[in-house]
Amino acid sequence: MNPASARLVVFDLDGTLIDSSRDLATSVNEALRRVAPGTPALAEDVVRSFVGSGARILIERSLARTGLPHSVEDVLPVFLAEYSGRLLDETRLYPGAVEALDRFGGRPLAVLTNKPGDMSRAILEGLGVADRFFRIYGGGDLESRKPDPAGLRRIASEAGVEPREALMVGDSAIDVRTGRAAGTLTAGVTYGFDAESFARDPPDLLVSSLTELADRLS
Hints:
Layout: E1 8-11, E2 18-19, H1 21-35, H2 44-50, H3 55-66, H4 72-84, E3 92-93, H5 97-101, E4 109-116, H6 117-126, E5 135-139, H7 150-159, E6 166-170, H8 173-182, E7 185-189, E8 205-207, H9 210-217
Parallel strand pairs: 1-4, 1-6, 4-5, 6-7, 7-8
Antiparallel strand pairs: 2-3
């Protein structure tokens, strides 16, 4: 199936629709400093490389990098409290995102992310685009997380389309593996957090911007 014939487009969030790396890095570093004063800050690009598998894995990787002995259970609530207070301090839609979302030809659009669902909806509402999506599912909304295909299959079912008629769009191999497992087509964006991972899990379509994606699907 040609991606241009997709009847449903499902987007990842961080690194695909929004650049949230600065707020995430600030929140991670503040959480680490709260539990272990004096902890050196992790660079933004380091934290960015930890994003994609949900908040728990983000903290697990951050603790491993800093060598702190604290448990994820100790630090995760601190991080979530920090992050909930700065969801939109620096986070922005990627250039051309609003215009691109308006160009997908009346197809239903959805978001499937491993970021906590309440935070995901708050961010998209704050950025003024939540109403573009008929579903916004994040961590905690479903029984499983990407790359488990259950969430993507559920969105396809709720949109009334077969998985093979849907397109999963993301910035990493996690999104490609999710789409493959669900039986959907996949598109990768090269500007996101983990484009290097496409070398081992290439998507069906690779684009450099959401504008290009809209062009390819029009």
